[in-house]
Amino acid sequence: MSEVGGSSDLHSQVAKAISEVEAEMKDIGYWAVEPLPPEAYDFQEAFAMDTMAFSQWLQFVFVPRVKQIIEDKAEFPSSSMVAVQAIREFDGDNQADHLVELLSEFDALF
């Protein structure tokens, strides 16, 4: 998708995309009810691979950060590679196929 109407249009497209990601995670049971312990946020590696599972990173880091950018009407990063990691992490997990598709669509916005 292109940034046809300027940044506010991109913000609305991203808001829709992140909402779909969240809904799909809930639908397939990848949305945790319990919060993570505070030390889980002391990660050093990309996608917090050293302190949490990828689905946890999506829920507790990625989704909130994207929502904050939308709320602040801030600038998005110039690119996103979350789908590439999702393909690696969910390889062979058929129930995550649609989630991977949604994350690919998210990345395509940038």
What does this structure look like?
The protein is mostly helical and 110 residues long. The chain has one domain: YqcC-like (de novo design (two linked rop proteins), Up-down Bundle), CATH 1.20.1440. It is built from four helices and no strands. The N terminus is likely disordered.
List the helices and strands and how they pair.
Layout: H1 7-27, H2 54-72, H3 82-89, H4 97-108
Helix pairs in contact: 1-2, 1-4, 3-4
- Taken from the alpha-carbon principal axes, the silhouette is globular
- Helix content range: 40-55%
Number of self-contained structural domains: 1
Total helices: the number is 4
Q: Supply the helix-strand structural class.
A: mainly alpha
Biggest sheet statistics: none
Residue windows where pLDDT falls under 50 for at least 5 positions: 1-5
Sheet-strand content, in percent, reads under 5%
Radius of gyration, Cα only, in angstroms? 14 Å
Mean pLDDT: 94
**Ends: how far apart?**
8 Å
The total strand number stands at 0
CATH fold group: de novo design (two linked rop proteins)
Q: Name the helix and strand elements from N-terminus to C-terminus, one letter apiece.
A: HHHH
- Can you name the CATH architecture? Up-down Bundle
The CATH superfamily is identified as: YqcC-like
Defining traits:
single chain; disordered N terminus; 110 residues; globular; de novo design (two linked rop proteins)
In brief:
The chain has helices at residues 7-27, 54-72, 82-89, 97-108. With 110 residues, it is an all-alpha fold. It has a single domain (7-108), classed as YqcC-like (de novo design (two linked rop proteins), Up-down Bundle).
